[in-house]
Design a protein that fits this description.
Number of strands: 7
Largest sheet: 5 strands, parallel
CATH superfamily: Thiamin diphosphate (ThDP)-binding fold, Pyr/PP domains
Mean pLDDT: 93
Strand order of the largest sheet: 1-2-3-7-6
CATH class: Alpha Beta
Distance between the termini: 68 Å
Strand content: 5-15%
Helix content: 40-55%
């Protein structure tokens, strides 16, 4: 068997394995929504997708620099988790693939785009760039260039909520969501934080965005147990595997985890089975994944699924959704124009935000 034939056979086996895992998700209860929530979910997911597409355009036109990791295909997770939580009340900790998490958390598209252009009007004042988005106002605890770095930070936020409630007797029930990929689940910080979170019953949700690939390493080649959600049981923690291409499934699982966390029952681990539609970064030619694999997942586009579900239910019309898409396109184009015309950081403030100021 040739290398290409072996690669195709292996990809087919991975797809079959995923299909079998999907069939076992039948008892997962999706969230029940009304029209208002449905439209908000669609709007948030569409904003994430159109924003990322515009980032790719700007990058390839030479207007945006550095490493840029896009979120296309995984929008149901950001929208499903953050949309179920309380913005400006709960806390969110991201990865280097953080643009859409920031948007879902409420950071204005103009501020996110400005940061990608390194402008003073960016949410990190032009100092962070694509991988280091941060907004105290919107409870976004940052994006992190190295995998796993954000999990201990998220743990600290969860600890602060518990400490305020139990030691300071404050009315604190905030929950923290920590996002990370399947590759991160093979490093020590992941296990150390699971242990501490369960030991102290911290109000945190560990959200695994399992897109099957850690840069160019296939998930099944990197870990001894490919079902990450099962690893929660080693710590006595609830774990759940869900369809990460279904925003209602993600929202439902998040609500269950939130209920446990706010009741003082501690953390949860949610593994979201998903797929990124682009390469690891915009500098990645994406030659390691087979075309059949990409086609398989493209058919499960989370935005198309939600759109079809909303229309089939009679909750909304196709015209309403098209109107939203046009509004989103205008918002994204405005964000680009704003960012292009925004001022650069003042060179005299090069060391500002590095050291504490008197």
């Amino acid at each position: 068997m040739s290398h290409d034939q072996n690669k195709t056979s292996k990809n087919t086996m991975q797809q079959r394995e995923h299909a079998e895992r999907q069939s076992n998700l039948s008892d997962t209860k999706p969230a029940q929504i009304n029209k208002e929530i449905g439209l908000n979910l669609f709007k948030d997911m569409t904003l994430g997708r159109r924003f990322e597409d515009k980032c790719a355009e700007m990058y390839y036109r030479g207007k945006m620099f550095g490493f840029v990791h896009l979120y296309n295909g995984q929008e149901a997770i950001s929208t499903g988790v953050i949309g179920a939580m309380k913005r400006k009340h709960d806390w969110f900790c991201s990865t280097y693939r953080d643009h859409v998490h920031a948007l879902s958390a409420g950071v204005p598209a103009k501020e996110v785009m400005s940061e990608l252009f390194g402008k003073e009007t960016g949410c990190s004042k032009g100092r962070g760039g694509s991988m280091h988005l941060f907004s105290k106002e919107h409870h976004l605890l940052g994006g992190y260039a190295f995998i796993g770095e954000g999990i201990p930070v998220a743990l600290g936020a969860a600890f602060s909520s518990k400490y305020k409630r139990e030691a300071l007797k404050e009315n604190s029930d905030s929950v923290t969501a920590a996002f990370f990929g399947d590759g991160t689940c093979n490093i020590g910080q992941f296990y150390e934080c699971l242990n501490m979170a369960q030991l102290w019953k911290l109000p945190i949700i560990f959200v695994v965005e399992n897109n099957k690939w850690a840069i160019g390493m296939a998930h099944d080649r990197a870990t001894s147990d490919t079902e990450i959600w099962r690893k929660a049981s080693a710590f006595g923690m609830p774990g759940e595997e869900i369809d990460g291409m279904d925003v209602l499934a993600v929202r439902g699982a998040t609500k269950r985890a939130l209920e446990r966390a706010r009741a003082g029952e501690g953390p949860s681990l949610i593994e979201c089975l998903t797929y990124r539609f682009r390469g690891h970064s915009l500098a990645d030619p994406d030659e390691l994944r087979s075309e059949k694999e990409k086609e398989f997942w493209a058919q499960r586009d989370p935005i198309k699924k939600l759109k079809n579900d909303l229309i089939r239910s009679g909750m909304v019309s196709d015209e309403e959704l098209k109107t939203i898409e046009k509004e989103i396109d205008l918002e994204v184009n405005d964000a680009v124009e704003f960012a292009l015309n925004a001022p650069e950081p003042d060179p005299s403030e090069l060391t500002k935000y590095i050291w504490a100021e008197n």
